[in-house]
Write a structure and sequence with these properties.
The chain is of the alpha/beta class and about 240 residues long. About 45% of the residues lie in helices and about 10% in strands. The longest helix has 19 residues.
């Protein structure tokens, strides 16, 4: 564990989910392939596109419409609809096709394995801190078995933009108005969404270095960096005492 700033007393903790509490890369790879195969069965015209083509299409759309970048659900549904149109699927079939493909995606996207160590750490922390989940993704915390640990769960919606926008951080703050911004600690792997997002609203941040983010992606330094959840848990439990 490396400290970049002084860790002030923490009263509430929020966690990113994907690639912070579990390795989401293989989950997404399986889900992407499952959706591609589903679309090829339902709409044979799309069989020319592999999972990598759908990914590239989604990335192009994200660059063309940056507002979609922090809302994975809206981005994926928009990309599905736009992709089907490119294959000249009848407009009256697109809405139902997107709904079915997205439901198929979510069934595989929620097939996440949570380690016993993560369950143990969250259970320990939940005894002393209100815990929140702030995720730009669309995983269901209940479906993956983490729902009982969190006081609140915030994900992008029509009302809330994703991190690093302030929306979800401020929505969590409203749940605990007695806790000052500097008493929050946000935990995540993304230098942009998690570290910069927390810094913008005056929160402290714990950067998980074992996720997808790299050191040269940091725009601001986190409060601390860690690569083992038990290490962070022990620090927070010690600080609470």
């Amino acid at each position: 564990m490396q400290f970049y700033r002084r860790l002030y007393p923490v009263k509430a903790v929020s966690f990113d989910l994907d690639d912070t509490l579990y390795n989401n890369v293989p989950v997404m790879q399986r889900a992407e392939q499952a959706v591609r195969d589903f679309l090829a069965r339902e709409f044979p015209q799309t069989a020319a596109w592999q999972a990598s083509d759908w990914l590239r299409h989604r990335q192009q759309l994200m660059h063309a419409q940056p507002d979609l970048a922090s809302n994975m659900t809206q981005l994926r549904r928009t990309a599905l609809a736009d992709g089907l149109r490119q294959f000249a699927i009848a407009e009256n079939e697109i809405s139902g096709g997107v709904d079915a493909a997205f439901a198929h995606f979510m069934a595989h996207r929620n097939a996440v394995e949570i380690s016993a160590d993560v369950h143990a750490a969250l259970a320990q922390l939940a005894e002393y801190y209100p815990l929140f989940a702030l995720s730009n993704g669309n995983v269901s915390v209940d479906a993956i078995g983490l729902g009982d640990y969190f006081t609140g769960v915030f994900q992008p919606s029509d009302e809330l933009r994703g991190k690093p926008f302030a929306d979800m951080f401020l929505a969590a703050q409203q749940q605990l108005p007695e806790v000052a911004p500097s008493q929050w600690l946000h935990v995540g792997d993304s230098p942009n969404a998690d570290v910069l997002g927390a810094h913008r609203v005056g929160w402290q941040s714990a950067w998980f270095t074992g996720g997808l983010g790299k050191h040269d992606h940091l725009q601001v330094l986190p409060t601390l960096a860690y690569n083992n959840l038990q290490q962070l848990t022990e620090q927070l439990l010690k600080s609470h005492k």
